[in-house]
Design goal:
This protein is mostly beta strands. It is 5% helix and 33% strand. Strands 12, 13, 14, 15, 16 and 20 form a six-stranded mixed β-sheet that branches. The longest helix has 11 residues. The chain starts with a helix and ends with a strand.
């Protein structure tokens, strides 16, 4: 088994995908039925507490559901996206502007943190789906689209009463294994041409981002394009969140891959442990790199990089009023961290593996000139084992929560960021929490690996 130095040489070029359209091999679209997850919470939590000391390519020191996230842009992500999804006109290629619901108002100011500490919430399973890793609201189609870790895309009506499988990628997505961080992990819709974008790891465990046009509310495999792909050095830390900004820039959360004990997160020639920012081509495969990416033209840096120094970022969210980007990065042995990125910031280094949260971590030596951004909140593994970043609450059903940034831990703990910091909220999400999003009315939904879609209600 090759060591980290040899892996670095091997993957230095492989981690830099071509930024032009390239043919994609044919792909099957079916597989065996998915297995029901059994006792995953206990298994995952126990696995998460194990810290590997090996430098091999199968590091899986945290066995949470795939956790993804970070950086930048505008509303739209694998867990809280409001991107359009109408079918372009065959004659003009334009997407009709026919929103189903009016835009939500800007978020109010954050409430007092003491108010959040006295709040109680009731989280209820509402739509039973298996292995759910993401959910997105499509405003123009008036439906939610859920993804499962084993490769299924499901359309869910606005009232959360009916479901329909609209895409089956199980034959090419990494075969599901309990506790694995691989599979179908991200979904978003391009605001320019309404295509569905998906992030998954394949049967070789490598990363793929693809897109398909939507026809009558269903993704059309005949229109499939390969956008980006790169090799993975290990089996863990695959992240996967996708986020479009209004200009059509796509942010991709990439974990460190679990093959170098975190060192790849600081390797600036690799796409691992980073937030990537690209602009998918319209009418062709591949993508371009935006000229204002922070490392364009800088020697030794992949130009796709927007931020770096992340272990396993799972979900990203942007405050609709302040433009602050919230990023959670899943820790390894002791700490979970919540990061906040100011509007229009880029090139930020979050410090992994030199730091776990704000605490020094014994992997590698930080260069004297390296600037690291510290988290705005962290909590120990005695409290939770995998942060699930959330959204700024703009609904009306839970008045004391309005304006707070709501997030959770995989184990079900609930939190709110108020005007004086973070408070633990009374209540729990059952099962294994994977993403948080807001409904078209601004109310809160949580997805669970075991229990599908959960609604959040006042207690």
């Amino acid at each position: 088994m090759m060591g980290p130095e040899m892996e670095s040489d091997r993957y230095r070029q492989d981690a830099r995908p071509e930024r032009r359209a390239t043919p994609e091999p044919p792909h099957p679209t079916s597989r065996a039925p998915l297995a029901i997850l059994a006792l995953v919470t206990v298994v995952v939590v126990l696995a998460f507490s194990i810290v590997s000391s090996d430098d091999d390519s199968e590091d899986s020191s945290s066995a949470s559901p795939p956790v993804a996230t970070e950086q930048a842009g505008a509303p739209g992500q694998a867990g809280a996206t409001g991107d359009p999804g109408a079918t372009p006109s065959p004659s003009t290629g334009e997407v009709p502007d026919v929103p189903v619901v009016a835009p939500l108002p800007a978020a109010p100011s954050k409430p007092p943190t003491s108010q959040l500490a006295s709040l109680s919430l009731d989280v209820r399973p509402t739509v039973q789906l298996s292995l759910t890793t993401g959910l997105v609201w499509n405003n123009r189609l008036g439906a939610y689209y859920a993804i499962s870790q084993d490769g299924i895309v499901t359309r869910v009506d606005r009232d959360l009463t009916t479901t329909e499988t609209v895409l089956d990628l199980r034959a090419e997505v990494t075969e599901y294994e309990q506790g694995s961080e691989r599979g179908l992990l991200g979904i978003a819709f391009d605001p320019r041409d309404a295509r569905m974008f998906l992030y998954f790891t394949d049967r070789n465990n490598n990363t793929n981002v693809i897109s398909m046009a939507m026809v009558n509310g269903v993704p059309d495999p005949a229109t499939r394009r390969r956008v980006l792909s790169f090799e993975q050095p290990g089996l863990g830390h695959k992240a996967g969140d996708l986020l479009f900004d209004p200009a059509g820039n796509l942010f991709i959360a990439s974990g460190d891959g679990g093959g170098s004990r975190g060192r790849d997160a600081q390797d600036t020639a690799k796409l691992l442990g980073k937030i990537l920012r690209i602009r998918p081509n319209l009418g062709a495969e591949g993508y371009e790199v935006p000229d204002d990416n922070p490392f364009v033209g800088r020697e030794g840096y992949a130009p796709e990089i927007w931020a770096l120094g992340l272990r396993n970022p799972w979900q990203i969210s942007i405050d609709p009023t302040a433009g602050v980007l919230y990023v959670g990065d899943v820790g390894e042995s002791d700490w979970e961290e919540l990061n906040a990125v100011p509007a229009n910031a880029s090139g930020i280094n979050f410090g992994w593996p030199w730091y776990e949260g704000s605490q020094p971590f014994a992997i590698g030596e930080k260069p004297a000139d390296a600037q690291v951004t510290q988290p705005i909140h962290e909590y120990p593994h005695s409290e939770g084992v995998a942060i699930i970043t959330g959204v700024t609450y703009r609904g009306n059903a839970i008045e004391p929560l309005r304006g707070a940034f709501f997030f959770a831990d995989m184990t079900g703990n609930l939190y709110g960021l108020g005007s004086e910091g973070v408070a633990r909220i009374n209540g729990r999400a059952p099962g294994v929490a994977t993403t948080i999003l807001e409904s078209p009315d601004g109310e809160l939904l949580i997805t669970s690996l075991e229990d599908g879609i959960l609604t959040v209600n006042p207690s």
